[in-house]
Amino acid sequence: MQEERIKPNNVTFLSLLSACSHFGLVREGCEVYNSMKWIFGIQPNLDHYTCMVDLLGRYGKLKEALAIIVKMVIFPDGRIWGALLAACSVHEDIKLGEYTAKRLLELEPDNIGYHTLLSHVQASVGHWGEVEKVRRVMTEKDLKKKPR
């Protein structure tokens, strides 16, 4: 694209970030993200931020993923917190997982998926009492997975 002097846009960068995330190209993804902002002057949108959190989170860079969220110039939604919570579950980071779940459940208190992810984070480190508390809340709120 650069050789052809074609200027990339939001969609171009989102595609590149997604590809980097799915192929484990963390350094390259960070370079793409930085060039989008500083070389091409494109302000990241929520999709770009979410993709970066997913990229960093998949490969255990949870503090860096949280830093992306904290530094965002737009309000983080459930998708971005959900990406971080999923990474906390995979990498068994209970402290950050609980913090992230709290943010998520403030945004969407009746989202069964977020309750389930929190339960998985707790279970991954053997906090069965906490798992039971989450399940009790789900039962009290009558939260059930909807059939597809």
Automatic annotation (TrEMBL):
UniProt-listed PROSITE patterns: PROKAR_LIPOPROTEIN (PS51257)
Pfam families in the record: E_motif, PPR
GO CC terms, sorted: cytoplasm
One GO MF term attached to the UniProt entry: RNA binding
InterPro entries: E_motif (IPR046848), PPR_At4g14850-like_plant (IPR046960), PPR_rpt (IPR002885), TPR-like_helical_dom_sf (IPR011990)
GO biological process: mRNA modification
Keywords linked to the UniProt accession: Repeat
Record flagged with keyword Repeat: yes
Record carries keyword DNA damage: no
Family that this chain belongs to: Belongs to the PPR family. PCMP-E subfamily.
Protein name: Pentatricopeptide repeat-containing protein
Originating organism: Fagus sylvatica
